[in-house]
Write a structure and sequence with these properties.
- This protein has about 350 residues and is α/β, with parallel strands linked by helices.
- Among the domains are: about 80 residues, Nucleic acid-binding proteins (OB fold (Dihydrolipoamide Acetyltransferase, E2P), Beta Barrel); about 160 residues, P-loop containing nucleotide triphosphate hydrolases (Rossmann fold).
- A six-stranded mixed beta sheet has the order 10-9-8-11-15-14, with helices on both faces. A five-stranded mixed β-barrel has the order 1-2-3-5-4.
- Bound molecules: guanosine-5'-diphosphate (GDP) and zinc ion.
- The site of zinc ion (ZN) has 8 residues, from α11.
């Protein structure tokens, strides 16, 4: 397998040259488990460990390698590499860290496309699609909508659903499929580009695991687990979180991705609700909240059905969540900054004392 087939591009190669990293090897992080990494190169998979300097200069968790990252490596043992640096990320999918208000946790990086999976059965919910679109817009990941389980409804109902989606969400491709009947599968597979990286977004039960298995085909059993050794030399079995599909696409799937939710979307709202934002320029008050103000252009459009009411309600809900999230992020940034200063002072002091 070539590095290009793993997603390597000229951008990364240029960075490598600019930074004089020529003497290092290049690999992509395909799994992370408690600071033990599995790094895939064109011919091998290695256990990776970060060098002390990388750890020491890290300002926050996000400076550590994540699944999807391209890293500069050096081999120090048959199956072991040291990770010297993380290449700048094209895209980042992150989420609110569990139990840590305002702290973000990187789920995966360098993802080109997200499959937003929705089932067309009773759980179908267009607001939820919009929520995932917002995440894509925030992270610069291109969305593709997959309507799954089409074997459960008749053709008329499906056409109606597709129209509903396309009316509200413009310029995003929609792929109706069924894992059971394999309808729509060929088309979807043709859409997957060699060397591009994909992820699956969607709530539990919509069929993401089944889809992943279908895309992997018979490879699954042998590709899904890896044995990595811990620092104590103990062997553990972990899952590959980055998989190369038979037809050449790369798919990232990990537990964190399954939990990506709306709290993570900070500024993608503007794109998803472009029409609302555009209208809000005509509101009478600059700080209009579009909820009760006289002269609110948005409310007027909702009343005259120029804007879909549920889309509008979804917008308000996300705005509230976003505000809450941003205030906690601001607090966190300040703390990070203070922490960075503390480390710097500490290093300075130790230098003076010749320690
Ligand atoms: P996940 O939680 O998104 O990973 O969803 P799963 O892949 O575990 O699927 C949830 C349930 O939906 C399982 O019982 C699957 O067998 C079922 N399922 C998945 N795809 C389809 C489909 O295309 N048609 C039907 N009828 N059921 C499906
Ligand atoms: Zn307004």
């Amino acid at each position: 397998m070539t590095l290009e087939e793993l997603g390597y591009t000229l951008e990364f190669e240029n960075y490598r040259k600019e930074q004089n990293l020529d003497s290092f090897g290049v690999g992509r992080v395909i799994s992370e488990h408690k600071e033990r990494y599995v790094v895939k190169t064109s011919d091998k998979e290695y256990d990776g460990e970060i060098i002390g300097n990388l750890r020491f200069t890290a300002q926050s968790r996000s400076d550590f390698p994540a699944v999807g990252d391209w890293v500069a490596i050096s081999e120090y043992d048959e199956n072991k590499v040291l990770i010297h640096s993380v290449f700048p990320r094209k895209t980042i999918i992150e989420r609110q860290a569990v139990g840590k208000q305002g702290e973000k946790q990187i789920i995966a990086t360098n993802i080109d496309y997200a499959f937003i999976v929705q089932a067309v059965d009773r759980d179908f919910n267009i607001n939820r699609i919009e929520r995932y679109l917002t995440i894509c817009n925030t992270s610069n990941v291109k969305p593709i909508i997959i309507l799954n389980k089409i074997d459960l409804i008749n053709e008329g109902a499906l056409l109606k659903l597709i129209t509903t989606v396309q009316e509200r969400i413009k310029q995003v491709s929609v792929f109706p499929i069924s894992n059971t009947s394999r309808q729509g599968f060929e088309k979807l597979i043709k859409r997957i580009e060699r060397g591009s990286t994909y992820c699956l977004l969607g709530s539990s039960g919509v069929g993401k695991s089944t889809l992943l298995n279908s895309l992997l085909g018979k490879q699954l059993m042998k590709t899904n687990t890896i044995s990595a050794s811990t620092s104590k030399g103990r062997h553990i079995t972990t899952h590959r979180e980055l998989l190369v599909l038979e037809n050449g696409g790369i798919l990232i799937d990990n537990p964190g991705m399954r939990e990506v939710g709306i709290a993570d979307a900070t500024d993608g709202l503007e794109l998803t609700f472009e029409a609302i934002i555009e209208l809000s320029k005509d509101c009478k008050f600059k700080d209009c909240t579009h909820t009760s103000e006289v002269g609110c252009a948005v409310l007027k459009a909702v009343e005259s059905h120029g804007i879909d009411k549920s889309s509008y309600e979804n917008f308000l809900k996300m705005e509230r969540e976003k505000e809450h999230f941003e205030s906690t992020v601001a607090e966190k940034r300040k703390k990070d900054k203070d922490f960075g200063k503390m480390i710097k002072n500490y290093k300075k002091r130790n230098k003076h004392n010749n320690i």
